[in-house]
Amino acid sequence: MLRQSLAHLLHGPLDGIDLISTDVFDTLLLRQPRSQRSRVMQAEQRFARLLRDEGTLISAEHLFRTRQLAERFAYRALNVGGGAGEVRLVDIIQRQLAMLGLPERLIEQRISLEMAIEKISLCANEKLAKVLRLHRQTGIRIVAVSDTALPRRQLVELINYFHGPGLIDNVYSSADIGESKRFGRLFSRVLEEEGVAASRLLHLGDDFLADCAVPRTMGIRALHLPKGRLRRFATRADGARAEAMRGVRKGVMRPSGRMPDLADRAAFGREVFGPIVAQFCLYIWLYAREAETQKNAALLFCARGGIGIREAFEKLVAKLNLPLEIRRENILISRLVAARAALMQQSPAVLDELGREFKKNTFADVANALGGCTYELSGPWQLPFDPSHFFAMIDTPEGRVVLDDIARQNELFERHLQQIAGDVSRIILCDTGLYGSTQRLVAAGLPERAFETIQFARCNYKGLSEDHFPQVTGLVVEEDLYNPLRIETVILRYWQIIESLFEPAIPSVRHLSESGDGTVYSNAGKIAYGEIDPADGNLLLAGVLQYIDRVGNGAEIMSDADLAWGRVKQAITNPRAFDMMALGVGARSVDFGRPESVYVLKQSGAPDLAKKLTAVKSQLWREGAIARDFPFLKTALLPALEMAHIVRGVSARLK
């Protein structure tokens, strides 16, 4: 570090320095103790008034929510994809407007409102400006370098507004250049454009990583100018205040609509799951819209659940006229297919999954499932499966016969992946959830590809490694347990309904084959978009598609979803007779190459009350089992179960 403090820069020339670069926000321009949340809300309130004057009524709350969602999923997609580049404000606003059905001509007006709020939320750092002017007079060039969603034009406007023209010789914005300080590439661009050596650049900024640690690794001299603790505390307090006030406004403005009477499963799908699925599809669009800015990504919908998701997604994108150019295909994949890929790499991840799935089976059962055939395996192959010995078993003469078939299946899968995704560097899988086993296995099996997964929910119900979780995004839910403060987490108490909602009536992908023209197909049949109707025989999904057919914009979806989530919670946690019918899913396949099925609600043959109560623990939908088996006691048992879930969740958080 060249100097110990900003004050030292006031005295004498800077030997060996030809260029000074300064961060902008919280360095050259200091923020008043106002959080981003309160600033954005104020801008949206002004935007709501502007729209009202033009004859469009959209609440500031809906504007705020869509803006926050656009920003949240943009940064998530950017970070999961490696963090290179920058999210641009113009893209965030464009996506916000698209969700709400507003014309793109409003983008500049909306950004102008953002700038107006910035001008009353910032102030000039006069001490720093004095230092910069002093050294500028000695012939040192001064540039501003910022990781920001704002383009150079807006940064220049703000700097000149507070400091007047002539302080800064040039401005570099990550939003324009597509590179950031936090990876060093924005600094590289500055050095190249300014024609100076790294050792002759002094950088000033408040972020220790982006403004200090990273440039120092590049040989750049750096001075850390952190924001004071009191200012940070005041900003956080303002954010908490803004969110509390927003909560009060939401409570006052809580949807007062009444859920219409539901006559059948299709009606339940239309009125309840319709808004929830449409909301999920908006989240997919926001994520994919940012990912496609890299120009080398593909969005692949996983058989089976992804097929139903894509049907709803494509319908919503068309209905709301949402722009999206990213390559999209349905992919023949399952946990079994992904496990074969991981096995070929002898990844420990596959042993975790096999150990959990086949803990009551033999080595031969595992071999039959993975190889896709019934093999004549005797002796140690008939012993109970122990994952710690499986790699050694598969390396025996009998095991290599199985391994050859696994390798052939994996070769077909890789060929299928090449056929639908080509050589794209970023593959985004879309599935239902929860743990992301497919992501974990396929990423381990094909390390030359960059895989990530977006799904309805992410939850470590298996208690296994979470090393793959940074590449798995639960777009609606990311919790391990039911959280009473987040109503969406109620879906974790009956996850099978989400799987059933999206999965068409086809088998899981177990065996791949090759046609005469080289196309890879599977036992699941034709799954390409448009060749299969996932709503056939699925009244819940048919109802969802009916809802999407009538929906108008994102604001309508969010309002409807707020009401629908309350109805879902009631149906899952305190089901009535109609709910039992609407949410019943029957038998569920255990998959992983096995023909067995399990029932979400097993018939209890327990002879007495105590044993019946004990049997509830083994049910996949416990509330449904209580409502069915204890019609007179459910008014006491269901609240008790709800309280047990709450206590369990609170205890887990305290730990």
List keywords for this structure.
alpha/beta; single chain; five-stranded parallel β-sheet; 25 helices
Description:
The chain is an alpha/beta fold. It is 50% helix and 11% strand. Strands 5-4-1-6-7 form a five-stranded parallel beta sheet, sandwiched between helices. Strands 9-8-10-11-12 form a five-stranded parallel beta sheet, with helices on both faces. The mean pLDDT is 90.
Short structural summary:
The chain is of the alpha/beta class. It contains 25 helices and 16 strands.
Low-confidence stretches: none
Radius of gyration: 29 Å
Strand content: 5-15%
Major sheet characteristics: 5 strands, parallel
Distance between the termini: 41 Å
> Mean pLDDT score, rounded?
90
Strand sequence of the main sheet, in spatial order? 5-4-1-6-7
Q: In one word, what is the shape?
A: globular
The class by helix and strand makeup works out as: alpha/beta
Helical amount: 40-55%
Total count of helical runs of at least 4 residues: 25
Number of strands: 16
Furnish the topology, listing elements before pairings.
Layout: E1 19-22, E2 29-31, H1 36-53, H2 60-80, H3 89-100, H4 107-121, E3 122-124, H5 126-136, E4 141-146, H6 152-163, E5 170-173, H7 174-177, H8 185-194, E6 201-205, H9 208-217, E7 221-224, H10 229-252, H11 265-291, E8 297-302, H12 305-319, E9 327-331, H13 335-344, H14 348-357, H15 363-371, H16 390-394, H17 397-421, E10 426-431, H18 437-445, E11 451-458, E12 472-478, H19 496-502, E13 512-514, E14 520-522, H20 539-550, H21 554-573, H22 577-583, E15 587-589, E16 597-599, H23 609-615, H24 622-629, H25 634-654
Parallel strand pairs: 1-4, 1-6, 4-5, 6-7, 8-9, 8-10, 10-11, 11-12
Antiparallel strand pairs: 2-3, 13-14, 15-16
